[in-house]
Design goal:
Elements (H helix, E strand, L loop, with lengths): L5 E9 L2 E7 L3 E5 L6 H15 L3 H8 L1 H4 L10 E7 L2 E9 L5 E10 L2 E4 L20 H9 L3 E4 L14 E2 L13 H11 L1 H14 L3 E5 L9 E2 L2 E4 L5 E3 L5 H14 L8 E5 L7 H14 L4 E5 L3 H4 L7 E7 L2 E6 L6 H4 L4 H6 L8
Parallel strand pairs: 3-15, 3-16, 8-14, 14-15
Antiparallel strand pairs: 1-2, 1-4, 4-5, 5-6, 6-7, 9-11, 10-12, 12-13, 16-17
Helix pairs in contact: 5-6, 6-7, 7-8
């Protein structure tokens, strides 16, 4: 199936979002003050991902029902979302039950402006949509969702217990996990099966960390089904553990692996929440170059607070999040409307001047 990108997302009643529609391009840089709804928009996409993984009640249990509903359970009685891609769409409505869970009250799929409800048992715990093809529209929608063509990634956790620092199973190589917990086996697979991509990753990591020589990727001597990430430094024979990489370097390795893996292994839409965390300005610049390169084939949605990262993109790539009396709202910037300002100032400077909002 060809790459299918998200065109538009409609969200109602979810966290800080009372009702918003967000149009999406190939590059989408999401900015705004703390509490404006940047992470909540990312969470909505992650919410869909968990629904498709049949983890809806797990999400509700961890987050708590009141925190998922706009203004709490007394203000909001349902969560609604619809995801548009090409001419098709998939949507649902969820309502709380007496047990404090969220259950499906409606599902629908669409083509152009038409919508068809998915036959389902009222107020079910799981999506009925995934249970089988029922007409000539559903085959165009169902495979897109099942293939998980869009995926949210968080590489923030670099503590000693982080998944990326643990041993990984050599068989866990279908895709890079959302937290890079399978980083070692995934890099091992790339080295064996996609050496050009592996070399590209290595080259880019060296641009950011000149002291870095190469990864040491060898299955465990006592159990050849597991592997741990290790590395060598330039001019030294000693092999270092992943704990001896700086947090910023390790996060950049995850980002480089995500963006430089073979295109056929990547999701169509790549979603990253504040990827600049802990990165040196030079690493941010290299990351931005990778985003531009990947965007020729893929779609990227990136939330950020970094002015260094913002200046690497055009105003047309930027979505500004604002928290209003009607909840979080999202507006695309226009290079044409900001032309007079951008002729004289960098985009981040115009942002700091509060010309287009997105400030506390």
């Amino acid at each position: 199936m060809e790459d299918v990108k998200l065109k538009r997302v409609k969200i109602c009643g979810f966290k800080s979002i009372k009702e918003s529609t967000i149009d999406l391009h190939n590059i989408n840089i999401l900015i705004g003050p703390n509490g404006s709804g940047k992470s909540n928009f990312i969470s909505a996409l992650y919410f869909l991902q968990n629904i498709l993984d049949k983890k809806l009640q797990e999400v509700v249990g961890k987050a708590g029902l009141p925190s998922l509903l706009y203004g709490g359970v007394k203000t909001t009685k349902e969560i609604g979302m619809e995801f548009f891609f090409n001419q098709n769409s998939y949507g649902f409505k969820l309502v709380p039950n007496d047990a404090g869970n969220l259950v499906f009250s409606r599902e629908c799929y669409g083509w152009n402006d038409g919508h068809w409800s998915v036959p389902r048992t009222p107020y079910g715990y799981e999506s009925e949509f995934e249970k089988g093809v029922r007409n000539n529209i559903e085959p165009y929608v169902k495979p897109v969702l099942e293939a998980k063509k869009w995926r949210v990634y968080h590489f923030h956790d670099t503590t000693s217990t982080a998944g990326m620092k643990q041993v990984g199973m050599l068989s866990d190589t279908v895709s890079l996990q959302h937290d890079a917990s399978n980083l070692a086996p995934f890099l091992y697979m790339l080295k064996q099966s996609y050496p050009e991509s592996y070399d590209d990753i290595l080259c880019v990591v060296k641009m950011v960390a000149p002291y870095f020589s190469d990864f040491v990727l060898e299955p465990n001597a006592e159990n050849n089904e597991i592997i741990r990430l290790r590395w060598k430094q330039v001019g030294q024979d000693e092999v270092f553990g992943v704990n001896q990489l700086s947090d910023g370097t390790l996060r950049f390795i995850c980002l480089a692996t995500l963006l430089l893996q073979p295109s056929e292994l990547q999701p169509t839409t790549i979603i990253l929440d504040e990827p600049e965390l802990g990165l040196h300005p030079h690493a941010i610049a290299v990351f931005a170059e990778l985003v531009h390169m990947v965007s020729s084939k893929k779609q990227l949605i990136i939330s950020t607070q970094s002015t260094d990262l913002l200046d690497k993109f055009d105003a047309d790539d930027v979505i500004v999040a604002e928290l209003t009396s009607e909840g979080s709202k999202y507006v695309h910037l226009s290079s044409e409307k900001l032309k007079e300002w951008l002729d004289e100032y960098a985009l981040s400077t115009v942002w700091k001047m509060n010309i287009f909002g997105g400030q506390p």
